[in-house]
């Protein structure tokens, strides 16, 4: 970590050419008032407009600005991951480049972080999006809270502040950026939130669509699995295997009684096919659980990842 860098601002960019200069101007005013060393990290996620040219111009005039350019569009999660890896500050703030997040709210996040929080999330209390987007977002937030047990109101808000150590061992992919607070909550970090402003979009088009919503739901399933069974997947797949195998065995006993005691033919019964299918599925789930358990052990050992988080040592 570079000495003296206190605050890093990470901003993914995808086709936001008209928003970048106003965003930079607003950021500079806010960051200069904070009066602590900072850097701004823009990640151009394969923009096909003039976004990179604008960023080049900004960077030439301000050496506190860093610009990363992707070869193609890899998505917001990949852009955030690259920005996190490039950042050198003790505190890292992420935000969108579309001017809907207000830089004036950054001091609010920092103040809340001083209240013994490791992560502070923005809550777009009065959103300026369309009706259907808000409905989908509210449903997604409700489902996330139900599945993960993490209680923040707005997982879709990109305006967040993190302590550096929180994100050093995060493995982000897909649409995981919206579930970073849930993953950190699972690791034992203290999560807070503050109400922040949300401005209507002036330039450019929203990147939110049904495909991203579906991908986010699939990633939620992965997050739930990782939170519950990442250290012992045999508990999930083994339990399913035992359940299916037991049901198949019970049906098999029932059919055997019909054949041996009452002399009824069972060869043409659909129940016999179901019993065999359940037993086969049970064996497959159990074996898959064993293989997944071995792979998880290799993962933790090879990557030297810990299954626990240490807050401090005396």
Looking at the structure, the CATH topology of the largest domain is Spore Coat Polysaccharide Biosynthesis Protein SpsA, Chain A
**Largest beta sheet: strand ordering:** 3-2-1-4-6-5-7
Low-confidence spans: 308-314
Assembly annotation: single chain
- Sketch the major β-sheet: 7 strands, mixed
Count helical runs: 9
By CATH reckoning, the class of the largest domain would read Alpha Beta
The secondary structure category is alpha/beta
- Strand segment count: 7
- Return the average pLDDT rounded to an integer: 85
What is the H/E string?
Answer: EHEHEHEHEHEHEHHH
Please bin the fraction of helical residues: 40-55%
Radius of gyration: 25 Å
- Span between N and C termini? 23 Å
| Residues in β-strands, percent | 5-15%
Protein topology:
Layout: E1 7-13, H1 17-34, E2 38-44, H2 51-61, E3 65-69, H3 76-86, E4 91-94, H4 106-113, E5 119-124, H5 131-148, E6 160-163, H6 180-186, E7 191-196, H7 210-229, H8 234-260, H9 270-303
Parallel strand pairs: 1-2, 1-4, 2-3, 5-7
Antiparallel strand pairs: 4-6, 5-6
Helix pairs in contact: 1-2, 5-7, 8-9
């Amino acid at each position: 970590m570079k000495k003296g860098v206190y605050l890093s601002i990470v901003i993914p960019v995808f086709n936001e050419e008209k928003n970048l200069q106003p965003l930079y101007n607003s950021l500079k005013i806010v960051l200069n008032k904070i009066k602590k060393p900072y850097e701004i990290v823009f990640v151009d996620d394969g923009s096909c407009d003039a976004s990179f040219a604008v960023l080049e111009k900004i960077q030439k005039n301000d050496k506190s600005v860093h610009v990363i350019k992707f070869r193609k569009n890899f998505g917001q999660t990949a852009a955030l991951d690259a920005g996190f890896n490039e950042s050198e500050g003790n505190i890292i703030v992420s935000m969108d480049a579309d001017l809907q997040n207000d830089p004036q709210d950054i001091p609010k996040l920092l103040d809340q972080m001083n209240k013994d929080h490791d992560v502070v999330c923005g809550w777009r209390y009065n959103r300026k999006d369309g009706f259907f987007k808000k409905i989908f977002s509210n449903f997604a937030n409700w489902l996330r809270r139900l599945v993960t047990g993490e209680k923040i109101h707005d997982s879709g808000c990109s305006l967040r502040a993190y302590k550096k150590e929180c994100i050093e061992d995060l493995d982000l992919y897909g649409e995981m950026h919206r579930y970073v607070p849930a993953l950190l909550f699972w690791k034992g970090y203290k999560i807070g939130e503050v109400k922040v402003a949300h401005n209507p979009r002036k330039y450019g088009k929203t990147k939110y669509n049904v495909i991203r919503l579906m991908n986010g739901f699939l990633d939620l399933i992965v997050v739930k699995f990782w939170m519950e069974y990442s250290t012992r997947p045999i508990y999930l797949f083994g339990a399913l295997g035992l359940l299916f195998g037991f049901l198949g065995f019970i049906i098999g006993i029932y059919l055997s009684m019909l054949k041996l005691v009452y002399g009824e033919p069972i060869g043409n019964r659909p129940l016999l096919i179901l019993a065999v299918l359940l037993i086969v599925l049970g064996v497959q789930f159990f074996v898959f659980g064993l293989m997944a358990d071995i792979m998880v052990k290799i993962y933790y050992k090879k990557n030297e990842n810990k299954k626990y988080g240490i807050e401090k040592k005396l």
